[in-house]
Design a protein that fits this description.
By secondary structure, the chain is mostly helical. The protein has four helices and no strands. The radius of gyration is 24 Å and the shape is elongated. The mean pLDDT is about 90.
Length: about 80
Amino acid sequence: MLKNITLSAEEKLIRKAREKANRERTTLNENFRRWLKQYVNTKNVSTDYDNLMNTFSYASPGNSFTREEMNERYIA
């Protein structure tokens, strides 16, 4: 069952969005429904980042480097 909601935005922005949706042969309502579905199904970005970093937990840089060592230029 669809339920109506009211949103507010600048008139100029709404006009441009409707024009773009029209060019894409869709509507603002359809785009909003897609966005809402994606928004609800998307995990927290920080959680995704933490999970990604945990997959690399086996890697360790070993030593700490001094500022001079990190900025050294090697000429091959």
